């Protein structure tokens, strides 16, 4: 199989061309996934660019992105394939007057023409390059996960009536998870694991500068430093990268050149989505730094 | 795949030892993952240490909570090696990844600059450190970390002391708290206008992160030298740390407690989802007669497809009675936090805390979004001391029975948390017996290892006789398992 990338650095620079700033881990794992022909399981807090990674990889490969959004109750007929039952019925009725045998009809109605492909099968059968994104895989029940196993390890789908359909080319596969439940060992074993965390300050600043081109260097610097400070607090939900970007845009629109305490507190609701978090951050941002440590629990 | 080539056999040995150690540290590494890792490293340039690390991580570590354990083991097995790190000029059996001179010439330049600094006085060194921290000069910091370890740690070959001892000695000499303060006051002086609290906070965060980086450098420097001195296996064993879910509540260090607090929120979310799913699935409500008849019409009046009512299982009401005296405070804290965070899964949660007196603390949790704040109030405001502030389960239970006993109903599940170390007071176990008669279930969660139960002043057996179950709950894993079966 031809490999798509020459080195981890090549992945990194090509991702940068489409405005996705990766780091060593991301580039390394994408590179390996291509070489080993394995899916990537991407985990991490919401809004750190898990789904965007799949989109960006599709973009640099010039591949079509096929997306399967997972939800509770997802089943075979929505994920893999389904027989077009109504069309089959029509076919049988149309056949009534003719003299065709039972076998003829049977082979006929269980053929490609009556097969409705769903995302997973579509990704396998596609002739042109595709990137398959299985989004929020932790939302399906643990039993449904088994549906994915065959396709993830062997890149094939078995349809009892048709036989096994094998992939013409091995697609890049990304699975994302918000970690609301532990995924099964069987699934994890088949994937490379990539945890995308909040980026460090330099990378986040770069991201802000790329995504909000009109922003000044100084403001971007301030934005990321305040966000880092907020992430260190004990919050229900820390600000995500996309929220950082939104915040930077807002400040820009408000014509802020240098963030003061009041600016920060007034616009906190863009970064934080829980009232208790906002209250806490407001208190801490305006509090004196000397008394930042919370009290220790009493012992007896 | 040609992993058995002679040139790679030493690599293979090292990797095998590495994986054995990962398993010993508690990471579940399967055989196929092992093969994947071996396969993966044939694809990456071996001199690229970062790529090597991520290749191993992606194939071997499938849970982010295990990352720290992985990093420690990785550093021990594949840390920078070379003559510069040996303590007593000992030989160097492994030559996997070179000294960072090759990988990072810039750092090497700075390193030799620092190396020439043997003659520096401590004052000069402190001055250099201060400058490096102020300017955030990473290469310089690395060189200084190395210097500081050479100078202050006092490491001797073969001395059987743990790494923390050397770390403590080095840090004590550097006095980083003072340096941080000096950095802050300098920053304040240099600023054109007085700093606002926000700016001050940001400055401090910046310096703090640099100081943390320095500490990490020092720590890994010490680790490297210890590995060079004692060999890989011995070091890996001494550095082995429990995974967050295995940390013992009663003996957790401050760092570990921080880790636990971070781990508990995602855990509650997970549990809530799981409990809600369990409630929805796996049970069917009673037969819905009308619906079944209506659907039978399409089968010519045959009820072929029975319909059931939407299941509405009763949610239990939970009473948590927790001992919050010093020895078990951390355990009580985590359990209260966990139970309240998933309170949506119960019809009501009421909490009581005691030491030798007992107080209801439900009010602290009501309408509060921030549970850790509520816990803090429980710890500071609840009225739990009756005589001397030593645990007295008997008295606490007696008062509980008097005050709240009649509010226990057949829907109530009672959880009692504590080590049952009663300081030789009378047990009043009859209260538990009475509670059990009225309640749906009574469970006792004990944070002590089972082997210690009923030794000394522990009388958990006496109480346990009247409970539906007594459980050992020493870590998050056990706690999670218990909550999942709770009903």
UniProtKB/TrEMBL annotation, chain A:
Domain AAA+ ATPase: 36-202
Pfam families reported for this sequence: AAA_5
CDD domains on file: AAA
MF annotations from Gene Ontology: ATP binding; ATP hydrolysis activity
Coiled coil feature spans: none
Listed name of the protein: Unannotated protein
Organism of origin: freshwater metagenome
From TrEMBL, chain B:
Compositionally biased region (Acidic residues): 92-101
Sequence segments annotated as region (Disordered): 91-120
Official protein name in the record: Unannotated protein
Organismal lineage: unclassified sequences, metagenomes, ecological metagenomes
